[in-house]
Amino acid sequence: MRHATSTSSAMRDKALEFEKRRGAQRMAEIGAGGDAAWNTGAIETLREAVAAQGQRSDVRWADALSVSVRPMITCWFRALYCAAKTATSVGAISGGAD
From 63's CA, which of 20, 25, 34, 78 has a CA 20 to 30 Å away? Predict the structure, then answer.
């Protein structure tokens, strides 16, 4: 009788392990579906934002400002980078570095 009990316990353990794996797989499927839906929504939002950037407002100064923002920010970052490099070089030369 003892052999039957251990076999039953082993079968129960296997069934429990199977259910755990099946549950984990289902949770992974749900997570993947949620990620795909989120990515689709993010791509749609990006597409709408890019399309909205190209639309003109009928206010000339606002359109001019909108068009010039990205190039001006780029120029500012370049200028800040050059200023930082120059300050570092001047500091190193003044400090006696070769």
Answer: 78
Query: Are the CB atoms for 63 and 57 separated by under 8 Å?
Result: yes
At 44-97, the pLDDT tens digits run 888 888 887 778 888 889 888 888 888 999 999 999 999 999 999 999 999 887
Dist. CA 21–CA 32, nearest whole Å? 16
CA 88 and chain centroid, separation: 33
Contacts of 71 (CB under 8 A, 6+ apart): none
Classify residue 66 as exposed, middle or buried by CB count within 10 Å of its CB (0-12, 13-18, 19+): middle
3-state DSSP assignment of residue 50: helix
Contact call for residues 63 and 56 (beta carbons, < 8 A) = yes
| Long-range CB contacts for residues 31-38, cutoff 8 Å, separation at least 24 | none
